[in-house]
Amino acid sequence: MITREQALVLCTADPVAAAHLLCELSAGLDRLRADFAALKAENDALRTECQALREEVRQLKEQLAKNSRNSSKPPSSDGYAKPAPKSLRKPSGRPSGGQDGHPGHTLGMVDQPDHVVPHRVVSCEKCGCRLDDCPPDRIEKRQVFDLPEPRLEVTEHQAEIKTCTCGHVNRAAFPETAKAPVQYGPRVKSTALYLRDYHLLPSERVAEAMSELFGAGSFSEGTLATFSRDGHRRLETTDTAIRRLATEANVAGFDETGMRAGGTLHWLHTVSTPLITWYFAHAKRGTKAMDAAGVLPDFKGRAVHDFWESYLNYGCLHAFCNAHLLRELVFLWEQQEQRWAAAMIDHLLDIKETVDKAVQAGAGRLDDQQLDRFQSRYFDIVLDGYDENPEPQAAKTAKRRGRRKQSKARNLLDRFRGHPGEILAFMYDFSVPLDNNGSERALRMAKLKQKISGTFRKPDSLLVFARIRGYIATARKNGINAIDALHRVFEGAPFAPSQICQT
Question: What confidence category does residue 475 fall into, taking pLDDT thresholds of 50, 70 and 90?
Answer without folding.
Answer: very high
